[in-house]
Write a structure and sequence with these properties.
With 383 residues, the protein is an alpha/beta fold. A five-stranded parallel beta sheet has the order 2-5-6-1-7, sandwiched between helices. A two-stranded antiparallel sheet has the order 3-4. It has a two-stranded parallel ribbon with strand order 8-9. The protein starts with 19 loop residues before the first helix and ends in a 7-residue tail after the last helix. The protein has three domains: 199 residues, P-loop containing nucleotide triphosphate hydrolases (Rossmann fold); 70 residues; 89 residues, Winged helix-like DNA-binding domain superfamily/Winged helix DNA-binding domain (Arc Repressor Mutant, subunit A), CATH 1.10.10. The structure holds adenosine-5'-triphosphate and magnesium ion. Magnesium ion binds next to helix 2. The site of magnesium ion has 3 residues, from helix 2.
């Protein structure tokens, strides 16, 4: 039997655990053409949730489209994608789509071919267009008109939304807000893992997106239902595990869905012969995973400066430590604060560490501290 615990990509269908309440709430909000800001730390499952929500929306005849701002380096690309994707979600007939596209002023139709040889249409912004923001607004406005004409509801999901700042955010936020407020047929979900940036965008009175919609903070998956999901698969695979040992998985993975999936995936492989999952097997999983990812960590390690390495070592030994406290610096022999600040800034920028809402600094990758402790014992890489 194939390993049912998938990780790394978009997980759907029977491989997707729970999130029943979240999907119900989001669906309800979208049926009412509202706007929701979906916020969580990294790897909690926002993107998976959005795709699974999409399937539920389809069942209710609601069109949807998904855009990841990471994929669009500049506003020109974002504007074309926003217009093309929204229109395509509403109109599947390519002749009608082309006709619709020909009515745009700032964007023009572009023909292509899909792998099956069918003609496809999308929108492109011309090289001479000096005003990509107006093109974006035109695309959004046209989508609203099309949805209204077809008496359809559309949900536009914009992932990694805090990236909007990279396109001169404030002006865009302002223009988008006034356009969105006119939309009677399009609901929006803005999703992001830069929690403080996302929250500032919505809670700061001076920002255009202030109170534009409801904030949904995505928490971990409830242990009770996640356990049922895991035990269900283990039973299907003929594995034996004691319910209380499963708690160890949630503790090791800090309830982060990516971590839990990864741990369960490795657990499945580790016990594939014996089919017996003991507490010892569970405790051995993070180290196994950290060794699997060793090439990735080695690259990070090689590119880190000496003081960055020292800070990472200190945090892997003392994950609850406060890096700017005298105690922490003395006990780990690091400092002064100015050099720690420089190391931190760089490690945050590289996405190796993150700042939690309680202001502590944590590893984005829960398994990396296991690798660091492992190489320092002279095992792992060197054994
Ligand atoms: N409900 C779920 N059921 C099973 N696995 C899940 C679920 N939610 C998340 N995962 C696991 O977590 C991984 C990361 O999820 P996802 O990419 O959706 O998180 P994210 O919050 O969008 O992360 P990022 O902020 O880094 O973009 C997935 O590849 C999957 O393995
Ligand atoms: Mg994501």
């Amino acid at each position: 039997m194939e390993n049912p615990f998938r990780y790394g990509g978009i997980v759907t269908g029977t491989y997707f655990a729970d999130r029943t309440v979240e999907i119900r709430d989001l669906k309800r909000e979208m049926e009412n053409i509202n706007r929701v800001f979906l916020v969580s730390p990294r790897r909690f499952g926002k993107t998976c949730l959005l795709y699974n929500l999409g399937k539920h929306l389809e069942e209710s005849g609601i069109a949807w489209t998904y855009l990841d701002l990471n994929a669009f380096p500049d506003l020109r690309h974002f504007a074309s994608a926003m217009a093309s994707f929204s229109a395509k979600a509403l109109e599947s007939n390519s002749d009608r789509l082309l006709k619709f596209f020909s009515g745009f002023r700032r964007l023009h139709p572009k023909l292509g071919m899909d792998p099956d040889g069918n003609i496809t249409a999308s929108l492109e912004i011309s090289a001479e267009e000096k005003d990509p923001l107006s093109a974006l607004i035109e695309g959004m406005n046209q989508a609203q008109n099309l949805a209204a004409k077809k008496k359809m509801r559309l949900v536009v999901m914009i992932d990694e939304f805090s990236d909007i700042e990279k396109y001169d955010g404030r002006t865009i936020e302002k223009a988008m807000r006034s356009e969105i407020q006119k939309h009677s047929h399009i609901g929006y979900i803005f999703s992001g893992s830069e929690q403080s940036m996302m929250l500032a965008m919505i809670q700061d009175k001076t920002r255009p997106f202030y109170k534009l919609g409801r904030i949904m903070e995505l928490g971990p998956i409830k242990r009770e239902s996640y356990s049922r999901f895991i035990l269900g698969w283990l039973e299907k695979g003929g594995y034996a595990i004691r319910n209380e040992d499963l708690e160890g998985i949630f503790a090791l993975g800090k309830d982060v869905p990516y971590n839990i999936q990864r741990l369960c995936n490795t657990m499945w492989e580790t016990a594939v012969e014996s089919k017996a999952i003991t507490a010892d097997v569970i405790q051995s999983l993070p180290l196994i995973i950290s060794r699997q990812d060793s090439p990735h960590y080695e690259m990070i390690w090689q590119s880190a400066t000496k003081s960055q390495k020292n800070l990472l070592i200190a945090l892997s030994d003392d994950p609850h430590g406060l890096v700017f406290s005298r105690d922490f610096q003395m006990s780990h022999g690091i400092g002064p604060s100015s050099s720690i600040k420089a190391s931190l800034d760089s490690l945050l920028k590289k996405g190796i560490l993150a700042r939690a809402l309680d202001n502590r600094y944590i590893f984005v990758d829960e398994f990396m501290p296991f690798w660091i402790r492992d190489i320092r014992k002279g095992k792992g890489k060197f054994n």
